[in-house]
Please model this.
Amino acid sequence: MDKAPFAFSRTRIHALISVLLVFIFVQALDAVIHRGIFRALIPTPPGYLFIVLLVGVSQTVAGAMLRHRRVSGALPRARELLLTLLGALILLWILSGRPFRGDFIPWRPDVAWPVVLCALQWLLTLSAQNALHSRELFLSLVIGKTGHELVKAAREAGGEAGEAEQAMRRLKRLVIVFDVFVLLPYLVLVTVRGAEGNGPVSTAVTVRVILQAAGSVAFIIVVNGLLEQQLACASGVAPEDTRAAESFGIPLAGVAALFILALVIPGGKPLLPIAWIGALLNWLSSRGVGGGGGKMPPATALDPGPRIGPLSIPQLPTATPSPIMESLWRILAILAVAAAALGLMLFIVRPLLTRSTRRAARDLHPLRFLRERAALALRALTRLPKWITELLRASGKGLRGIPRAVLEGMRESVGENRAAAARSQIRLRASARAVREFHRIARWGGRAGMRFTAREGPMEYARRLALRAPQKASALHAAAALVEELIYGESPSGMSERALARLVDGIVR
Amino acid sequence: MKSVQEWAEAFTTSVRSAFQGKAETVELIMVALLCRGHVLIEDVPGVGKTVLAHAVAASIGGKYSQLQCTPDLLPADVLGVSVYNQSTSTFEFREGPVMTNVLLVDEISRATPRTQSALLEAMAEGQVSVEGRSVPLPDPFLLIATESPVESEGTFPLPEVQKDRFCLSLHLGYPTRDAELAIMVQQRSIESPLRRITPVIELSQLVEMQRLILGVHVSPLLRAYILSLVTATRADVRLALGVSPRGSLALYKGAQALASIRGRSYVVPEDVRDIAVPVLRKRMILKEDGAARGITEEGIVQELLDRIAVPPLETAVS
Model:
């Protein structure tokens, strides 16, 4: 079986399904249990469903990264779960407004319930993603082929096709289980309310349950489409993106519309109500410089303070709080809280911030992240004296030149960093593309009975293949040289990438 | 100035007009020249070691000296000695054979450890200390030492520290049938083929090339690959001593030189793999029972090359 990593573009639909399917269920479950059964006794933080959705997205992307790195086992996933839940807990705690009111205990029910929902979202998304992984395996063996080749490849990948089909059916069963878990409690709730004469269930709950039911139908349509697409492969019909967009676009658009509705329905409150910001400012003013003065009687210069023994040390007068300082402290505190919230948000969705899967996978480790930032800060500090000297030299004798020199220095530095980042991106992209093309050659060689071994370089393998296929020797050598240039060269060119793709097309055809 | 590849082609043609051995050997000699390294040739007598050294010296247009090592060879015979000049009533320093561009140290294991160690400084520092003063050696300086693996009586095996000073360790091996026929045909002429060799490069150009190869790009993936190979020798249970950091540096620079000779501005895995055996072979020590069990250093390096995957293509293995 080919263990080559899969292009993320091929699995976008899978990521979408695994996140949305679970999210629609989780929001309906929340509506029935929290709003229906417990009648919204717990005042959940505003926007908590958005955090639940973010956790699902984070799991999908982090899972893809881990799979790309071939990291398996429960431990890395458990670490991801713990870190994500920790981030979600702190974010929800901030959103609940408790820290602004001086309540520093994060595990109150209003925060704990959304965290439970986050955990549910994470685990079920993982389960859905694992089911869809079998289909990715199958796709990797048939993608890029047409006609007779596709039929042959689909036949050869019979085992993977069977597993993918079973996984699709498991997914459909999961959708039905979700329906049961939502509809049954809802029906019980409606019956009990009716029997007790407590009035009907709130409209918001009913609408969200209906959304779940409608979403389930849409998902079953999508999964059936995927199954049909798989069967079509055996008849030589390629699973193309355009056809996929036509088949699944409408149901998925419907589901997307539903989840937007689900996000809007429980809302109605701003993310950070004005009253809470007021509470934050009041709390900060009571804790800021001079704010603690209320606890102690104010001392004045005339007051000699308490006497200790024969020697007396007069107490210094405490400073009266200045309004400017108070405002400054408030602004600083608000900025710090905002920065912390933003940092947490970035931490949860960090794999989304880069297009390079390899880099994202490395950055998943929080210690590495912190270490790198600390090293950057240290480097900046060590360069500071040199930078100041250069700045003073550039600005000449006049002070008026300093701002211009600062601006020029910043522009230069930003330009250098951007150029370096662009170069690095180009190199990474070219390298990834070359590896992908080399995988195609290796698969082609493997089918001809000449498997690639990790102990040889591209050119050595190309020479071996050329012995078996002398008519393609020159193309193989040229392709291997380009692969080497793109992977190991200092500044690979876009022309080489295109030339390689053309050469490999010619070889494997 | 010629490119390194053009020079390499001209140099190979020039050396092979007199030396009928393998082209790979000439390529490795060029690697040592470009890395400012030295070469240890272990082989039986009569396979062309001296001819090779002569041809190399003639092809780069440098000065050539040969030292025939014997147990009574003294350090002063190698480095030089001060001789009293009666006419000027002063001591004059007479340079030894080490003051050359290409030095062939024949049968190095026949020299005493004292004489062998006199060569250590020359190999490592590019200078010699004589009578309390440091005398720089000509630039470039290439030392080609030979030793016979078959004789042990009256020899002083090279200490490990000295073996580590050699950039490459080569086996010439017997020539092929065709090459041996060509050698016979060459002998019909009275004039030695070595006399027909003309320099293909100036010494200053060679020094410039030595500087140029330092700029050959080595991808971080290959740096990690080199380190994986070297650190694997340190963890190998069959070895009493693994490869030192000097070894990884030699492998790095050797791969750079080889890439340059092959006309590339970047190193590829094949460069590292081709240079690994000659670079690493003599930088490790087998455990005492290793030789008895038929284990060789070369075999270990080859096994490591077969075991350690070339990054980042390991994912293509099906």
